[in-house]
Amino acid sequence: MKSIAVFCGSRDGASPVYKESAHALGKVLAEHGITLIYGGATVGLMGEVADAALQAGGDVIGVIPHFLKSREIEHKHLTELILVDSMHERKLKMSELAEGFIALPGGPGTMEEYFEIFTWAQLGLHQKPCGILNVHHYYDPLIALFDQMAREQFMPDKHRSMVLTDVSPEGMIRQFLNYSPPPVKTYLTDERT
């Protein structure tokens, strides 16, 4: 695996453990020779994961829309900074560059990015792993919601198994390296699994 996109908050969060985990993820990616693809900002967990990867000698590619360049304060020391015209272009470019996707804690923007890329995986638009780094139990309610979706038959078990979760960056990378996507979803059969 050569590149992973990280979706995460433009804030630090209430606990220092969020920033520490972003730092640990950036460092682990660099140590594995994996290029970090992210939103291109210097603020919050976004800046922390990028700085850690750079400090550990890794490559970091940021993708940021023109209108957010000043708001999120683009990172000026990246391997590459790609400017795009919209949030849609940002997500598309990140999806093209990345071979996997990890969500660190974040707000609605992080959720929107994760859910879109995960939905694309369910539909077979890509076969890349999508992971949730469950730092400080932040994503426990979301993981419980995925379980509820499966129980109530709004998500087949094979798609529930695509929701990769871990509490450590190393554990997540191991899951990514062993990931095998399920067959592509179809409505042409009465398949329920």
From TrEMBL:
Its EC number is 3.2.2.n1. The keyword Oxidoreductase does not apply. One of its GO terms (molecular function) is hydrolase activity, hydrolyzing N-glycosyl compounds. The keyword Hydrolase applies. GO terms for biological process: cytokinin biosynthetic process. Pfam families: Lysine_decarbox. This is Cytokinin riboside 5'-monophosphate phosphoribohydrolase. The lineage of its organism: Bacteria, Bacillati, Bacillota, Bacilli, Bacillales.
